[in-house]
Amino acid sequence: MPCVNLSTNVSLDGVDTAPIFSEVIKAVASIIGRAETHVMVLLKGSIPISFNDNEEPAAFGEVISMGGINSEVKKKLISTIGSILETKLSISKSRFFLKVFDTTAMRFQSKM
């Protein structure tokens, strides 16, 4: 089950977050190759974030998945989720950082 955890310093008060959830779920499911019903998304707003020595709109995200992650998938996730945040919350892609982690990668490394 992929889990997407997004935090932003943008206030979500009064923001219709349903389209954000919907677009992120669809994108992650499609890119990683999982069913939409297995994608979890957490979205937190008004989180204190300073990036490049200022507090302009910014976001940090993590995608954790059991498999389905490679370098091309990482690039697509970063670009697509960044575009969603830019469109829906006016967060510039240059002020968005996404950490992508495949839990199965550690399983192969630990057998060495």
Describe it for me?
Helix content is 38%, strand content 22%. It has 3 helices and 4 strands, in the order E-H-E-E-H-E-H. The chain starts with a strand and ends with a helix. With 112 residues, the protein is an alpha/beta fold. It has one domain (3-110): Macrophage Migration Inhibitory Factor (2-Layer Sandwich). A 4-stranded mixed beta sheet has the order 2-1-3-4. The protein is globular. The mean pLDDT is 94.
* Named CATH architecture: 2-Layer Sandwich
Task: Quickly name the level 1 CATH class.
Answer: Alpha Beta
Total individual domains: 1
Characterize the overall form.
globular
Binned strand content: 15-25%
Q: Helix share of residues? A: 25-40%
- Strand-pairing-aware structural class: alpha/beta
Residue ranges: pLDDT <50 for 5 or more in a row?
none
GO molecular function: phenylpyruvate tautomerase activity
Organism: Protea cynaroides
Pfam family, one: MIF
Protein name: Macrophage migration inhibitory factor
Summarize the structure.
38% of the residues lie in helices and 22% in strands. It contains 3 helices and 4 strands.
List the helices and strands and how they pair.
Layout: E1 3-8, H1 18-32, E2 40-44, E3 59-65, H2 71-89, E4 96-102, H3 103-110
Helix pairs in contact: 1-2
InterPro entries: Macrophage_inhib_fac, Tautomerase/MIF_sf
Pfam families: MIF (PF01187)
GO molecular function, one term: phenylpyruvate tautomerase activity
